[in-house]
Amino acid sequence: MANKHNYYLPHHGVIRESSTTSKLRVVFDASAVTTSGKSFNDIQMIGPKTQDDLFSILLRFREHKYAVTGDVEKQRSLQQIIYRFNSNEPFKTYTLNTVTYGTSSAPYLATFFANCLVSLANETSNLNTQRSMKHDFYIDDYLGGANSIESAVELAKDVKSTLESAKFNLRKWQSNSRVILESLNFSNDCTNKKLNLDSSPSKTLGLYWDTSVDTFYFSINNSFEHQYTKRNILSFVSQVFDPLGLEGPCILQAKILLQHLWLQKCGWDDEVSPKIKHEFTNIISCLCQLNSIRIPRWTLQDNPQEVQLHVFTDASERGYGACVYVRTISTSGLIHVCLLISKNKVSPLKPTTIPRLELCGALLELQMAQKRLLSYSQQEMILEEYALLMASKPIPKGGRNLAKSIVHACIRCTRHNAKSPQPIMANLPAERKYLEFPVLNTGVDYAGPILIADRKERGCKLQKSYICVFICFAVKAVHLELVTDLSKEAFLAAFNRFISRRGKPQNIYSDNGTTFVGACNDLKRDGVCRVAEVQTKRGPIIRTFNNLCPLPVNQS
Predict the structure, then answer these.
(1) Which CATH number fits domain 434-527: 3.40.50.360, 3.30.420.10, 3.40.50.2300, 3.90.1200.10?
(2) Where are the domains of the chain?
(3) Where are the beta strands (DSSP E) in 61-113?
(4) Distance of CA 54 to the CA centre of its chain
(5) Phi and psi (nearest 5°) for 60?
(6) Which residue from 174, 169, 213 is spatially nearest to 68, judged by alpha carbons?
(7) 127-185, pLDDT tens digit by residue?
(8) Residues 467, 481: Cα–Cα separation, whole Å
(9) What's 438's DSSP letter?
């Protein structure tokens, strides 16, 4: 106990009546905090994710016509326990020499060996076996299959022999075909095999597979013998294990009820209101009705000529969701439709419009398609070619040039990879480079149109108007004038107001619009001189003036 590097794992037993091999299972709690304030999981490196997620594994499991399942038979000083075989013996310290489930690094350690075996079996196993061992394992549970009995038997034997070469025994085989089990020299001891892929003891109610009819069904406990508190309600709802969303409508009602409990801000062990109790009773009865529902595991049919994915989304004030159906058409014209996956979410607490919630449902659909379905379909399409490239000789010379020519000739690739042109900006005019007096060089343009009211009282009329914008080139000062139309008379009136307040500019720049050109022509036709060229030491400059007074010239 004095060694600071020792850790004693708290553990307890969990009885599982539905288990076919281990009725009593030991559960270790490596998250228990010690007197140092840290647990075993706090000081461990979890490790990278080396396996596919549960969603993808179950999705592939529903593609095979013939499915097979199996289970692998299961730093030492930090994995110590205190135990005695009977109450008369003293406590002894034992060290666990195996991978202990309950630690944060257990999933990585349990799946790392499978990847090592795949790399070692690249030369002896076929591509299908390598793919199945890499993608169809969830921790120590194997879910695979094939579209023919011969392929399924060959796959199961290859996977089992590969694991046995590393002293890993794959047991508890199950299949929807008696022929496959007899070929493997195993007996189907139990008709119903529970797909309890999560080793957490809290998920005891989950997805069941009836191998006799090859269907999924649910086993929901209809008895609730606890007090109606938020803790017990949350514990009951969290027991439902539905990774594919097959129980979506009933689970959504439970999620909405939990949201109402959080809004009421009641304590964990406080009795809920009679209204919540009545709603929860209805939810339990709705969940219990799922026990009579059977969902086919196999989503396809024999000799499919065309496979389609149909996605539906919808939203309401209480929640939104999306579901995906598989529609297959056989060579004989037989149409088969099956629910593949679904997902739903509760509407946020912040008030949101129905159109926005429908967009959230569409986003949920796109996320499922982008992360799951599309990537998985693309992977399946090029899987064999990719594996052949990985196992073949080095890439021949000239392959890069060939790839460039193909990509360059692809119209769709050119359209998607096109870059917007970057315009070449012209140099700044000379009037913008030097600091001068304000409004000496000014630019003018119109903004609008805008609507203005002719008066503030009731019954006013809206009139279309424009804003004349004067911008100083030196200090970027802005002067705004309101004009009623685009005529030259309106501009000249605004220009006179600008001069009266800011002074006369030396140069005025515009985009040569018809309004500005007409005003410039009118100023030239009145015969009044307004500018003059003055010689200075730095050269000639153009200045504006109001009155021109001739001075006498001294001849001397």
Answers:
(1) 3.30.420.10
(2) 303-390, 434-527
(3) 66-72, 80-83, 92-95
(4) 16
(5) -70, -30
(6) 174
(7) 777 778 777 777 777 788 888 888 888 888 888 888 777 777 777 788 888 888 888 77
(8) 6
(9) T
